[in-house]
């Protein structure tokens, strides 16, 4: 085992040196952060973008992708990207809920009817409109990725109704919407960094969390939380953004190369996502996870009334939610 660890360390070190050497040959090297592990659909999508950018720029412009929270947890990397310390970040819309009002609306439970409808919303005029809201926060949105449908998982019991959630402690992203969602369901929200969830479930600090199939799998959370309830309460998009500080240093030609490559990375991500969802579902079910599908979803939807009343208050917000829900 010691030999294997030593060999692995050597390989990783060699890979890092090769990457550094490649970056040294580029006139401009942008660093892109992702909390997900290498091989995850979002990571691979940005890699495909990086390949296209390097090819179309003739090797002048390069993107180095740093997965597995190497540059920090999501909240931290967003702030660093705003200041230009990191050039690019892949993050969930949920992480912007308390920063960008339209992002908060996209995190409303049961807003989207399906992933296909979400694609139509984000790929169309509404998506372009929302992207502009990030300009004021020194972030230039390049692409929208999928976050899948998020469901509850826990270590205690199968959850089939709202009553089953009463008093349970669930990790959510640090967002008022998600905290209020849990309160409306009678549960206790515990915001914490993604990297702390496994040990917190294992030690009983929390009872569970909520996420999509690939994250439930890749994080290993299924090992300590064996009950998954497919209520699909959230379909929160993810975005790939570049720091305005870094963006303004690029020529118009390089900006266009970046935008095109980012757009082309979207179908790559979605195809990989569909494959990963299926593989993750098969993997966790084989590991003995109890998947609850007979959920009274309407009961969960009805419980969200107070959440919508709290966050959909202005005429602009009501109009945006209405247009999203009416998109086919």
Please render the helix and strand layout as text.
Blueprint (H helix, E strand, L loop, with lengths): L1 H23 L3 E6 L7 H16 L4 E6 L7 H9 L5 E5 L8 H6 L8 H9 L1 H8 L6 E7 L4 E5 L14 E4 L3 H9 L3 E4 L5 H6 L5 E4 L1 H6 L8 E8 L3 E6 H4 L4 H35 L3 E3 L4 H6 L2 H7 L3 H12 L2
Parallel strand pairs: 1-2, 1-3, 6-7, 9-11
Antiparallel strand pairs: 3-10, 4-10, 5-8, 5-9
Output the keywords.
D-Maltodextrin-Binding Protein, domain 2; alpha/beta; 48% helix
Q: Could you characterize the architecture of this molecule?
A:
This protein folds into two domains: 180 residues, 3-Layer(aba) Sandwich (D-Maltodextrin-Binding Protein, domain 2); 125 residues, Bacterial extracellular solute-binding protein, family 7 (D-Maltodextrin-Binding Protein, domain 2), CATH 3.40.190. Helices cover 48% and strands 18% of the residues. It is built from 14 helices and eleven strands. A five-stranded mixed beta sheet has the order 2-1-3-10-4, with helices on both faces. α7 packs antiparallel against α13. The radius of gyration is 20 Å and the shape is globular. The relative contact order is 0.16. The N terminus is likely disordered.
Helix/strand order, N-terminal first = HEHEHEHHHEEEHEHEHEEHHEHHH
CATH homologous superfamily name of the largest domain? Bacterial extracellular solute-binding protein, family 7
> What percent strand?
15-25%
Q: What is the global morphology?
A: globular
Strand order of the largest sheet: 2-1-3-10-4
How many distinct helices? Answer: 14
Number of strands: 11
Question: If you consult CATH, what is the topology of the largest domain?
Answer: D-Maltodextrin-Binding Protein, domain 2
Determine the structural class based on helices, strands and strand pairing. alpha/beta
CATH secondary-structure class of the largest domain: Alpha Beta
Please indicate the count of domains. Answer: 2
Uncertain stretches = 1-22
Main sheet attributes: strand count, strand direction, barrel closure? 5 strands, mixed
Protein name: TRAP transporter substrate-binding protein
GO cellular component, one term: outer membrane-bounded periplasmic space
Subcellular location: Periplasm
Organism: Amaricoccus solimangrovi
